[in-house]
Amino acid sequence: MQSNGLSEIKHLLRTHRLPHIWCPGCGNGIITQAFLRAVRRLDLDPDKICIVSGIGCSSRVVEYLDFDTVHTAHGRAIPFATGIKIARPELNVVVLAGDGDIAAIGGNHFIHGARRNIDITVIIFNNSNYGMTGGQYSPLTLFGEKATTAPYGMVEQPFDMCELARGAGATFVARSTTWHAKKLVDLIVQGVEHRGFSSIEVITGCHVNYGKRNCRETAVKMLQWQKEHSVPIERFHSMTEEERKKYFPVGIIHSETRPEYTEEYAKITRIKRDDR
Amino acid sequence: MAKRVGVEVSIAIAEAVKLAKAEVIPAYPITPQTHIVEHLSEVVANGELDAEFIPVESEHAAMSACCGSSAAGARTFTSSSSQGLSLMSEVLYIPPAMRLPIVNVVANRAMSAPISIWNDHQDIMVQRDIGWIQTFAENGQEAVDLTLHAFRVAEDRRVSLPIIVNIDGFTLSHVIEPIELPDQEDVDAYIPPFKPKYKLDPRKPITMGPVGIPEVYTEAKMLQDQVIKNSKKVILKAWKEFAEQFGREYNPVETYRTEDAEIMLVTMGSISETAMTAVDKMRDAGKSVGLVRIRLWRPFPGPEFRKAAGKAKVLAVIDRTLPPGALCGPVGAELRSLFYKIPGSPKIFSFVAGLGGRDVTVARFEEIVEKATGYAKKRPKELYEVIGVREK
Ligand SMILES: Cc1ncc(C[n+]2csc(CCOP(=O)(O)OP(=O)(O)O)c2C)c(N)n1
Ligand code: SF4
Q1: Residue A116: which region, alpha, beta or left (left: phi > 0; alpha: psi -120 to 50)?
Q2: pLDDT, tens digit, for every residue of A7-34?
Q3: pTM score of the predicted model
Q4: Mean pLDDT computed over every residue of chain B
Q5: What pLDDT is attached to residue A1?
Q6: Between residues B71 and B1, which one has the greater pLDDT?
Q7: Do B49 and B141 reside in the same domain of the chain?
Q8: HSE (CB half, 13 Å, CA atoms) of A247?
Q9: Residue in chain B nearest A63 by alpha carbon
Q10: Does A71 contact chain B (CB < 8 Å)?
């Protein structure tokens, strides 16, 4: 039942809200598409999906998706999602937001969501900068690369979002890119199916603000860069320390089973109720 | 000689901060403040300004870092807007109590939800009572001048308080205006080096911001109130010296064609320029209308305002925020209490206009004056009215 046509996901879009605000060539559309294809493949009931975003170019996505969606405050998508999930554990709660949103201003929420292992899926649109505000560096800007606030190159080290997620306790951790558009669908499917905190980092292109400052001024160059700098996690493992510095691994970085927060919480309230 | 150049107001403010030789600038970007801090990060990176620019991970961190650097004795600047200013809020109450002279330029913008990046005064009115000195600029030149004035006043030992300079988002932050940027020597003469009375110094350890038990808390807060009230003298003197040094005169309250005016519009910020055009038009049509503009919002210049507007029969006060459930907007409420039970004082009518980027046009001011004229004869049912509401 697999077709590549837009027709199979179009009904999940609020087409009357289009055209979207994204620049031509922006990677956000690829991720949006991948997400909707995953929803289709999982055959999820659209009424059982709730999408939460923060603020940023990527977060605008909630205005175009025809589910219950919440456009929150910058950095606060994960706590909003936590509230929704704990009130309605039967919903598929998905956070779609930028690297600034999740790793900078909302970084604290990310690690605590992971630590609790609450069953939400966080898809990080990592375009390595704050796109919406014009290209300031983010905690995921690569060392040495340029941004408006790093005109001579970034002197801080970036987070490795996958290692951060794993270290904080996330039980499903994956990375993909917009170049790997098809594999991205598989990863999102697995992330949503996973029972626990799923973190999916998607390396995407903002050629308009980031690419142009880093010799990748077109959408195609952004994609090429992703292709050239990524390797499947299996191959990454067999690389030498020196080789690894040049690439980032894509695929499922980590997966395990641990008690999930809303389930554990429900158990306690049940015990308490039975006590009474 | 100081040059008059066509420059975006945000860039001019950043240049003023450079001229003031800020030493630490912690900031997080937010529309419409972004260009101010972006330009500063550039001049720091270029080595034109010997300062630390800290691109922190949130506004909460920005204001916290500001407190740290100011407490350590560094001249400290930041800038924010809307959601960002609100995210600073927890920390904003701290520097006035610790007497930390941080300068913060706020590019005023609406608050979520619904999400709006456009201009009004909700963001700053939420922070009305944080204890910072607060001024409102009308145009780009004033934004620059108030920024310089802010450093001078804040760091004066008799004041030692943080200052927010309000500039309207987009209508000021993003326009290009002819602006005179003063010479470095003149700015150096106007703003002496920062020598705080108390600072964090390992050789002379002190504690800032310890617990205020119920036995001292009230007195501490009263002192803070006294300090900001007393700061007015320094604020006025610094404006006087500004005029001597740079030739531009500023007062806490400005008037325009108020001589014998029966009705006076009351505004803050950039809509005042449109209001002046409206006043001219109405004067031409034979109406007795003038304009009073509040530049200094905290400490509130009560006597100055009474002097400027006390002879009017009617005040039509325009607020750029709509506090749900309140009796009227904050400026309206302030003026009602200023004139409460003073014999012969003007009738005050409160209006709300220009929310979330809606333009306040000349026609709107005419409408306000017309309504106020009518209300003077027949009391309105409500204590305030929203102007420019779409019918459909
Ligand atoms: C509290 C607060 N601070 C700052 C902003 C301004 N702001 C809006 S989006 C954004 C960054 C967006 O970057 P990212 O999250 O990476 O998303 P992108 O636009 O790159 O998709 C910032 C700083 C805001 N809206 N709220
Ligand atoms: S600024 Fe960058 S992230 Fe935002 S829409 Fe344009 S390309 Fe995409």
Answers
A1: alpha
A2: 899 999 999 999 999 999 999 999 999 9
A3: 0.96
A4: 97
A5: 46
A6: B71
A7: yes
A8: 21
A9: B115
A10: yes
- Shared domain for B193 and B46, answered yes or no, is yes
Within-domain flag for B17: yes
The pLDDT, as a whole number, for residue A270 is 87
Q: Is residue B64 in a domain?
A: yes
- First-to-final CA distance of chain B: 54
Same domain, B309 and B241: no
Instruction: Using DSSP bridges, classify how beta strands B296-298 and B176-181 pair: parallel, antiparallel or unpaired.
Output: unpaired
| Chain A interface disruption, residue of B25, B28, B33, B86, most A CBs within 10 A | B28
A133 to B31: CB separation less than 8 angstroms, yes or no = yes
Q: Do B219 and B272 belong together in one domain? A: no
Q: Which atom of ligand 2 is nearest to the CA of A205?
A: 7
Picking from B263, B295, B294, B268, the residue whose alpha carbon sits closest to that of residue B279 is: B263
pLDDT tens-digit series, residues A94-128: 999 999 999 999 999 999 999 999 999 999 999 99
Q: Is B277 within the bounds of a domain?
A: yes
Cβ-defined contact of B42 to A151 (cutoff 8 Å): yes
Instruction: Please give the tally of structural domains in chain B.
Output: 2
Q: Which of A107, A133, A152 sits opposite B30 (nearest CB)?
A: A133
Do B284 and B149 share a domain, yes or no? no
Q: What is the CATH number of the domain that holds B268?
A: 3.40.50.920
Domains and CATH numbers, chain A: 2-275 (3.40.50.970)
Residue B324 structural domain:
253-386
Look at residues B222, B246, B270 and tell me which one is the last residue of a structural domain: B246
- The reply to whether B392 falls in a domain is no
Q: Inter-chain contact A133–B112, Cβ cutoff 8 Å? A: no
Residue B222 falls in which region: left (phi positive, over 0), alpha (psi -120 to 50) or beta:
alpha
How far apart, in whole angstroms, are the C-alpha atoms of residue B48 and residue A169?
45
Q: What percent of chain B has pLDDT over 70?
A: 100
Residues B73, B194, single domain; the answer is: yes
Max distance between CA atoms of chain B, in angstroms, equals 69
Mark which of B205, B223, B246 sits at the end of a domain: B246
The ipTM estimated for the assembled molecules is 0.93
CATH number at residue B51: 3.40.50.970
Residues B60 and B187 in one domain: yes
Question: Which residue, B75, B91, B240, is CA-closest to B160?
Answer: B75
In Å, how far is A186's CA from the nearest CA of chain B?
Answer: 32
pLDDT band, residue A269 (cuts 50/70/90)? confident
pLDDT tens, residue by residue, B64-122:
999 999 999 999 999 999 999 999 999 999 999 999 999 999 999 999 999 999 999 99
**Is residue B309 within 8 Å of residue B258, measured between CB atoms?**
yes
Q: Which of B39, B79, B83 to mutate to test the interface with A (most CBs of A within 10 A)?
A: B83
